[in-house]
Structures are given as structure tokens and as C-alpha cells.
Amino acid sequence: MTSHSVDAGASRYEPTTFKVKDKKLGMWIFLASEVMFFTGLIGSYIILRWGAATPWPVPGEVLNVPITAGNTFLLICSSVTMVKAFAAIEDGNQKMLKVWLLATAIIGACFVGVQAYEYTELVHHGFLPSSGLYGSTFFTMTGFHGFHVTVGVLCLLWVAIKAFRGGYTQADHQGVEIIGLYWHFVDLVWIILFTIVYLI
Amino acid sequence: MSAEGKKPRYMLVFGGLAALTAIEVAVAFMGFERRVTVMILIGLAVWKALLVAMYFMHLKWETRALKILAAVPFLPAAIMIIVVLMEKF
Amino acid sequence: MATMASEPTGIPVRVEEHPQSFIRKYIFSTDHKVIGIQFLFTCLFFLLIGGLLAVMLRFQLGFPGAALPGGDLLPDTMAPDGIILPEFYNSLVTMHGTFMVFFAIMPLLVGVYANYLIPVQIGTHDMAFPRLNMISYWMFLVSGLVMLSSFWVIGGASAAGWTQYAPLSASPEASGVSTGQILWILSIAIFGFSSLLGSINYITTVINQRAPGMTWFRLPLVIWALFITAILGLLAIPVLTAALIMLLFDQTLGTTFFLPTEGGQPLLWQHLFWFFGHPEVYILILPAMGFVSEIISNGSRKPIFGYKSMVFAIIAIAFLGFIVWGHHMFQSGMNPALGMSFMISTLIIAVPSAIKVFNWMGTIWGGSIRFHTPMLFAVGFVMLFAIGGFSGIFMASSPVDIYIHDTYFIVAHIHYVLFGGSLFAIYGAIYYWFPKMFGRLINETAGRIHFFLTFVLFNLVFFPMHGLGMEGMMRRIYDPSQYEHLADIQDTNTLITWAAIGLFISGLYFGVLFFWSLFRGKPAPDNPWEATTMEWTLPSPPQHGNWKELPTVYHGPFEYSHPDVEKDWLSQNERPDVVSPAHH
Hints:
The complex is a heterotrimer.
Chain A: H1 22-50, H2 65-90, H3 94-124, H4 132-164, H5 174-199
Chain B: H1 7-28, H2 34-56, H3 64-71, H4 74-85
Chain C: H1 22-27, H2 32-62, H3 86-122, H4 130-149, H5 172-175, H6 179-208, H7 221-252, H8 266-283, H9 286-300, H10 307-320, H11 336-364, H12 373-396, H13 398-404, H14 408-438, H15 444-470, H16 490-520
Helix pairs in contact in C: 2-3, 2-4, 2-16, 3-4, 3-6, 3-7, 3-14, 4-6, 6-7, 7-8, 7-9, 7-10, 9-11, 9-12, 9-14, 10-11, 11-12, 12-14, 12-15, 14-15, 15-16
């Protein structure tokens, strides 16, 4: 098999198949694993509930739907501010990048705050992780989602600090893009969780 | 990546998400038959999730390979849940 | 350096700050080669631990109730007067499995060789995320130390089997082990995260950082295997993490996921664990198959038979591996219809594995065979893996499994594929890439002695277990002599124990050989095996950054005995028309 021509199928600095640079590709791959993680938790919830001998409480019976609906709206807002931050730096707008990043972090922190408040209310009413399967699944799923949000807020602050130091330009703002991907994912998981845990 | 015509879409998507959330909450308490309620709610949730993925996460404008990468984990996820549900505890 | 007949690509390697201090260079290094070697040393240590635990449990099985030599060094909670207690025996069995699977075999295959080989075989200077890579190693070390520490807490180490079935694993009242169990869970959770970081690195690097000309179907099979393995880990390990969290909460927070008294489902644990566990065992074999393909092709001086079918077989095994997990649960009381579908999928998954075995045989057939030590281990792999595969067919059939589940027949199968399979391949890989990693050669005769000792003793230990299982000897039992139906075969257990002690000693021999060769081995040339993949065009060991300029790849990885070239191999970045053309 003699060949005189070089078949340069993949050039080192031009990613081919996915046309996506390393860090972004790495984040998507990480999110694929997160899908499996939440599948483990949410899937177990579905399975346990499907096979439960005793009936599950109806929506609103134990949990506060209106407040959490509002919280869901908050998280969606934070996704919007996040995407606006990304759009800003794509346009080279440093000022709005900082504004929208901070907004996202603050709204995200509010979400966690509201959840924490919800938890304390529930615990005061005697609803704990040890309150049967309902308590076990509720606290584990929402708790780990809340943990992911908290980590997200911390990363957002890190990115915001870097933005304030002028670390992002119109040409190079990978960090904003990838924290954005993570943040939207966390919102996406909540969309599913809210529906399944609070409404069904 | 150019941003022509993309910014207006974000607010549109936001509006859609907000509206869908409101509809979901309403449907949950409307007292439809159980199976119907569940199907509608799951459908609405999936719709919202796709909006976030396609527009906010930019999947709509990415390569087919990346779309597949994003979709891939849902297959083993579905297998796990469906198969174990067949256990009928 | 060997004939450099490649056109320079003109793509310089990114200039990185070169760390000078010993600590930055060898301890907290981000160089994939150093990290791979760190994994190697750490894993050999854990392999030793796993082997020691095995010898201890075998001692109890071979000489029930006898005092373990040196056993009076152990505390009374483990072995009063040196006689192993049943509870401690359960811990031994559990921890042997745990250390071997998580801390020896898996990281030896992936942590060592994915890290070391991926960049040098695909033609790049390092992994996509070098600092994540470093974190991955240190998390792994921490997780191993946490696991080791669990022996010394009150209540002892986990004793619920490496499979940790609930409610034994979920309830301290049931197992008598509390802190040790929590440490087990935490350790594996940390390990899982370390593995995840590794997977992200390997997948991104293979996708994005192949050298010019390195198309997907020119990748060495080692890379294909490691790539697909990384995907398996990416998708399977998070499910285990979720399950571990639920188990931990059952143990500590009073949740009831797996505890039946409050509506929990023990079977859910089994499903979650094996949903992870089955892809896990393919993680444990696929890289080994990759190494074997490489070594057999090299040792036969022939291209691998059926390269594309080998790739598709790897992909098929990985895909099917997600739908066979129920075959670990045939006896659990699960839905029988589900049992049937798992049986069918399990029988089907034997096909791509068989294709690979036939392809290896096809590679060796008609080859000009060199029986260097790696080749011995690779051929040994094919034989022993095939035996393990045959026993797998028996077990795949649920009616047969009713009889042999949880017996020593299963133990035989496990060890034929994990030891005769994975560990033999690991030994082969260690011998094969040792010259590249350390710039030294391991003496061939000494290596051959290791191979023959291991091969003979391994079969003496594990082949009789097929028979023991058929006779009804159950797994994880403390004292076989207590059972009437096992009284006749106690002698077999004793024989196995003696052989196991011998096997452990041969492992120690390997350890001595390995470390001796590190310091006293003959200096190695760049390409002692006359191999074709690109790491062999680099010095032994390669410098930091691997290449000064990225190579160009011209053809696939198995160009042995190329008709247009006089020497009998071509590196991937050599052009046949430029390199010593053959005279026809």
C-alpha cells in the first residue's frame, strides 16, 4: 500500500468530527456523565414510586408547590441572564458580560436560598430524609441538584472575578461558554425534577 | 460564531419557558385523569428541556456529531429505567 | 533514532513551562508519562495487597480453623490466636475483590496505559487536560488509602462482598460493620470521580488531538480499546455513584432506599450495581484485548487479522454490555421474562468476543513468530480468556445458572477472565512497554520464568474450581469442611491453597524482577520489539512534550512485513517509498 500523498484527516489545531475545542468538548462529555448520574437518582425514584406498596402523597400535600414554582421561574431567569452574558462577550461587550454574570450568580444563590428555606420548613414539620421512601427520595434528589447549583454558583463567581480582571475577550471566552453549558444543564435537570417531584 | 438574529430568540425562548411552566402547574391541579396528567406533564417538561438544550446550550447550531453526543446517554438511561420498571416490584 | 522518513508537519508543539523542581517534575507532575508511571507503582502495591488478602482467605479455606502463620500479629477482632474469624474472613473476601477490581486491575489497564500511551500513540504532546489528569491520580491514591484505612476502624473493614448487596451493606445491624462500610462507600465514590476525570481526558484527547493523518481507522487497537473503555466508564460509573449515595444515606441518614422494612427495595441495589457492574467488567477486559492485539501482531510480524472487525467487535461488546446486567441476578427473584431477555443478550455478546479470539488466531497463523515475554503472555491470554469465555456460556444460560450461581464455578470464571485474561495482558503490557517507560530491558529468560510459573500455578489454582462449583461448593463460605457434601473435596481446597501460595510467590518474584530491572536492566534502544506504533519512534524514555514537531501519519498501525520495504516493519509516521525500499 504505497501512497505518495499525505492524508491529513485530522489537523492538530482544527478539531474535525465535533468541530469543538477541547474544553467545550470536555464539558459536553462531563454533562453526558451527569445525565447518567441523575438517571441513577431520578430513575430510582421512578422505580421506587412505581412499585410502592403505600400510595405516594398527592402534589401539594407535603411540598410547597407555589413557592417552588416561583423558584423554578427564578432558575429559568438565571439561564436567560447566563445566555445574555455569553452573547455580550461574543459581541465584545465587557460591561454587560460582568453585569449578566453577576446577575446569574445572584439569582442562582437565591434559588439555593429558597430551597434551603423550604428544607427548614419541611424539617420543622417533621418531614425528614428518614420519613419513608418519600422523604428519602425527595431530599436526595433535590439535595444533590442543590449541591450542583451551589457548585455552579461558586464557578460563576470565579468566572465573574476573571471577567472583572479582563480575562475574557471577544476572541477568547471559552470559560464563559463552558460555565454557561453547565448552568443550563443544571436548569434542565431542575425542569425535569420539578415536574416529577412536585407536580406528578 | 455570528449572532445575527439570535438575541431576540433568547427572550422568545424565555417567554416560552415561563408560559410552559405556568401551564404545567395549572395542569397538575386541573384534576384530569391520572394517566393523562402524567403524560401531559412529562411532555411539557421534555419540551422545556429541549428548548433549553437547543437554544440556550446552542445545540441547534452545533454539528450533528455533538447533537448525537448529547443524546447518547439517554439511551442507556432509558434502558435502565424501563427494564427495571418491568420488574413490577 | 530509527529512520526518520516523515515529512515535518511544521506544527510545533506548544511551548510549555518546564518544571525544574523534583516535586513538580515527579510528584505533582502534569506530564502524562509521569502520571502513568505513578499509577503503575501505586497499582502494583495494591495488587500486592489484593494478593496477600487472597492468600489469607485461601489459607482459611485450605486449612480451616488452623492458625495463620504470622496471624498472632493480627488483633483479636480479626484473628484471635491467629485463627481467622468468620467476620474477618468475610472482610478478606470483600476486600480482596475490592482491591483487585478497583485498585489493581482497572487502574493498571486504564490509569497506567491510557495515560501513558494515548498521547504517544496518537501523536500529541500530552492529554487535553493535564492538570485534571494530575488530580485524577491523586484522588485515586487518596481513595486507595481510605479503603486501606478501613481495616483499622472499629467494626473492621466492609464485609458485604465487593458487590455490597443490601440490606447487608445498608444496615449496620445486619452487618455489624458501620464505619468500615462508610469508608468503603466514600473510597469508591472518590475513585469513581477520579475515573470520571480520566475518562473525560481520554475521550477528548482521542477525539481532538490526533496527529495529521491519524484518521479513526488508522488508530492502533490499543487506542480504540481505551477510547471505548473510557466511554463505558463515563456512562456506567455515575450510576454507581448515585447508588453509593443512596447506600450511604441508608447507612447514616435513616433513608430506606434498600431497606425492605420501610418499603425499600433490596433488588433495586442489585439492578443499579450491576447496571454499572457489567460495563465495569468490560472496562476490565477491553483494554487488555487492545494490548493483546498489539503484542500478537508484533510477535507474529503480521498485521492484525481483520482490523475493522476488531474495532466493530469492541464497539459491539461495549454496546451489548449495557443490556446484559441481569445475568448476575438470575437467582435474585427477578421477573423471569426479564431473565430470558438477559439470557439471550448475554449469549449474543459472546459472539464479538469470539470474533476477536478467531482474529488473534488468524493473526498468529502463518506468522513469523517471536516468542518474547510479552508474546507469551498475550498468547496465554487468548487461551485462558477463551476458557473463561466458555464457562461464561454455561452461566449465561439461566437454567444452568440456577445450579451454579454463587458457587466456585463462578469464581473460576471470574478468575479465568480477570487473571488469565486481564492480568496476563497487564503483565504482557508491562513487559512490552517497560523499555519505553524506563529505558531499560527486562531480562527475557527471567521474564519467561515468570510466565511459566504464573501460567502453571494459575491453572492449578483455578481450574479445579470449576469442579468444586459443580460439586456444590458455595462462594464466600468460611469453612467448607463443615458441609457434608463438601467433605470429599476438601483435599482439592488444600491443593488450591498450596498452589495459590506458589502463585503469590511468583508474583513477588515478578515484583523483584521489575524493580531490579529498573535499576540494573540493560539500557533499552528506542524500538526493541521492532514495533510500528509511534511511541517506538521516540527515545526510551521520551522527553517531556514527546515530539518537537508533531508527526504526520501515513498508514495504519500494523504494517509488518510490508512488501515494498526491506525491514519487516514500518512505523506509522514513515513513508514506505522513502524508507529503505525493498529490492524486488
